[in-house]
Each structure stands twice: as C-alpha cells, then as structure tokens.
Specification:
Elements: E1 3-11, E2 17-24, E3 29-33, H1 40-55, H2 63-72, H3 80-101, H4 105-108, E4 117-125, H5 128-140, E5 145-150, E6 173-174, E7 180-183, H6 185-203, E8 208-212, H7 219-229, E9 236-238, H8 248-253, E10 260-262, H9 273-277, E11 283-284, H10 293-306, E12 310-311, H11 321-333, E13 340-341, H12 349-352, E14 353-355, E15 358-360, E16 363-365, E17 374-376, H13 378-382, E18 389-390, E19 393-396, E20 401-402
Parallel strand pairs: 4-5, 4-13, 5-8, 7-19, 8-9, 9-10, 10-11, 11-12
Antiparallel strand pairs: 1-2, 2-3, 4-16, 6-18, 14-17, 15-16, 19-20
Helix pairs in contact: 1-3, 2-3, 3-10, 5-6, 6-7
Length: about 400
C-alpha cells in the first residue's frame, strides 16, 4: 500500500502542535505528532522540506524499513529535531497499520500486558496549603500517583507552579522573548523536604509521590536531596541533574536510595545506554514523540527491561493527543511498564482532536479502535493558527545563566 501524500499541520488549540498526516492510495490516513515545544517550526520545516518528499510512493506497511531509511539514510543523525520528525512518520505508519489490520496498535505490539496504564497527575500550589488542597483534588479523582510541586519561599517563580488550568504547571511566554526566572538552589534544598513531609503527614504512606527537580542540581546536590527525602518513600525524583554526562548519576546513586527518573529530553537509546546498563536510574522517561516514535522507544524499553529499569514516559501537555495515545498503546504492551505522566491538554483542544482513550480509577486505556484511536479535524485546526511561544529561561541570583 503506497503513500500518496504527506502533509504537515500546525495548529494552536491551547498549545502549539505539529501534526503529520500521511495518506495512502486507498485513502487511509495516519496521524503522527511532531511537536517540539519552543522549536515547533524547525520540525515542521524538517518534515515539509526534507522528509515528506521522501515518503511519496513508499510502502506504508514497511515501518521498520522506513525508520531505518530516515535515520541511517540521513548523514546527520539524532538530535531532537530529526528524531521528532522521524517519530511523527513512525507513529503515523503504526496508525495506518492498525487501520489496515482493524486492530488497536497495542495489539499489534503483542497485546495487553496489563488491564490499564497507571498515570500520575500534577499537584501544585503557591503555598504548601494550596498544594495539599490540590493533592486532595487528584486523590479524589482516583489518581494513584501524584507529582508534588510548591513555590519556594523567596523566589518570584518556581517551576511547576501555576498555569491556565489544573494539571498545567507552567505557561509558555507569548511573544518574541522568553520569561527569565531566578533560581536559588540553597532555598530549594531547604524547602522541598518540608513540602514532602507536609504531604505525607496529610495523606499518609500509601499515596505514591513524585517530584520534578527539572535539571536544577549538581550530582552531589541531587544526592543530598534524595537522602533528605528517603524518610518519605518517594516514588521517584525526576531529572535531578542535566544528563549530558550520564556518569553523573553514579555520584547520585552513591548518596541516596531514593529512586531516580530521567530522560524526557533524550532522543535515542544512545542518550541513556550507560544509565540503563549500569543501573544508574530506576525509570527511563523518554517519550514517543521525541525518541523516534514507537519503533525506537520500544527498543529503549527492551534494553531497559534487561537491566530492571522501568518506563516512566514524559506526557506533558506540550505533546499532542496523538503522542499521548501512542504512549498509552506502547505502555499497554511492554513488560517493564512503570508509570505514565498525564497532564491533559488545554481547551479548546477537543475541537481539533477526537480521542478514544479513557480513564477509570487511576488507570488509562487507549481504547480498541483500529490504529491509535485519534483523529484530527483539519478545518477546526485551521481556526487556531500557530502562536509564537517560548519556554522560560533561568538565572541564578547573581545573574548567571542556569538550567531551566
């Protein structure tokens, strides 16, 4: 079955999304997410100008061959733009294969390995009291795991706080310049154990608690944080230090038994090979849309399975419903699933995307529609044009640039 068209759709129904539409000679359509938050148009151009012309006439069912063609056939490999573009193609082809077969993608991947996918929500507050109220909100909705973030006293802004709606914990800056935040590591390290202790005191030992450091700490500082949180039995601390140097996590491991998760900015198995094979982490957080699609992320999870590392995929609202659906299908099928992030999406996203995934009692299911179970309304998408937005940047109190 030949591919006859490949089109890129850029729309902003609450957030900017880049979607790839692949059409076959029989009129079947597959959808792939190509969103790279803050650099969306770079991926759109990569697809339109370099990838889409290569797809015309190719067999839509030869998914692995197409993946290898786009990866090995391009001299300049890897990186977030390339791998996000390849992911969009890969996911769209899996969607088509499911529609050809009349099966949901998770069944093509080997069938369900569980009844549903455990997800965690994002609780936050400008004070600890507000955080406790938000944790109760998620608990009452049936969430079995909750990420906790609260504003650090003395800082004008803190990652993970605020947003346009529950579960959306930051807003990109509109316009031509990113917002500049100020960061103080000492204040943060002093505050976080108090915050987590308050949540534990209020909700007891059974709720699974997660916390996102967002790459702010040095390895030894991350070790200090993990050690201070050990009494509260965290499910994990996430992205505790930038992971360009994978060996840095060895230092963290030497100082704490708190489980470690990392990987939302990774783009290939090579970005996390050492972390996995040396068991320096407990959860790998790479996402379908930024790691070359279902085909390559399945390879990452297979390697992780050998070494007892579980999945914990990124699932922020800056990834479209197409991306989230594809994550759920893969989550359902792998043996070493751990947990899935779920932030939801900002209104009016339902005007553009229709989805088949559902949530009940803290578990999500991708649905049993053929393919991914997600469709896009192109006329509705056209009503919401792209809006230039940037993620914030960070500076220390002395004005030095820092990791956001």
């Amino acid at each position: 079955m030949k591919i006859t068209a490949a089109d890129v759709i850029v729309t902003c129904p609450g957030r900017n999304y880049v979607t790839l539409k692949i059409t076959t000679e029989d009129g079947l359509v597959g959808w792939g997410d190509a969103t790279l938050n803050g650099r969306e148009l770079a991926v759109a151009s990569y697809l339109r100008d370099h990838v889409c012309p290569l797809l015309i006439g190719r067999n839509a069912t030869r998914i692995t061959d197409t993946w290898q063609y786009l990866y090995r056939g391009a001299y300049w490999r890897r990186g977030p733009v390339t791998m996000t573009a390849i992911a969009a193609v890969d996911v769209a082809l899996w969607d088509i294969l499911g529609k050809i077969s009349g099966l949901p993608v998770y069944r093509l991947l080997g069938g369900a390995a569980r009844e549903g996918v455990t997800v965690y929500g994002h609780a936050n507050g400008s004070t600890i009291e507000e955080l406790l109220t938000d944790v109760a909100h998620y608990r009452d909705q049936g969430y079995r795991a909750i990420r906790v973030q609260a504003a650090v006293p003395g800082l004008d802004s803190t990652y993970g706080i605020g947003g346009k709606s529950a579960g959306h914990t930051y807003e990109p800056a509109d316009g031509e310049q990113p917002t500049e935040n100020v960061w103080d590591t000492a204040a943060y390290l002093d505050f976080v154990p108090k915050m987590v202790a308050a949540v534990r005191d209020e909700f007891g030992p059974t709720v699974r608690l997660l916390h996102d450091v967002h790459h702010r700490l040095s390895p030894i500082e991350a070790g200090q944080l993990g050690k201070s949180l050990e009494p509260y039995r965290m499910f994990w601390i996430e992205d505790s230090t930038p992971a360009e140097d994978q060996s840095a996590f060895r230092t963290i491991r030497q100082h704490t038994t708190t489980p470690l998760a990392v990987g939302e900015v990774f783009n290939s198995v090579y970005d996390c090979n050492q972390l996995i094979t040396e068991r320096l982490i407990d959860y790998i957080r790479t996402s379908v849309s930024h790691t070359g699609g279902i085909t390559h992320l399945r390879d990452v999870f297979a390697l992780a399975n050998v070494y007892g590392v579980r999945s914990g995929s990124h699932g922020a609202g800056d990834l479209s419903p197409v991306s989230f659906a594809s994550a759920l299908h893969l989550d359902m099928a792998i043996p070493n699933f751990g947990i899935q992030e779920y932030m939801g999406h900002l209104d009016p996203w339902r005007e553009v995307f229709s989805v088949g995934y559902t949530m009940h009692d803290g578990l999500m299911h991708p649905g049993d529609a053929p393919g991914l179970g997600v469709e896009l309304d192109e006329q509705a998408a056209a009503r919401y044009p792209y809006q230039p937005q940037y993620l914030p940047v960070n500076r220390l109190t002395d004005g030095s640039m820092w990791d956001w």
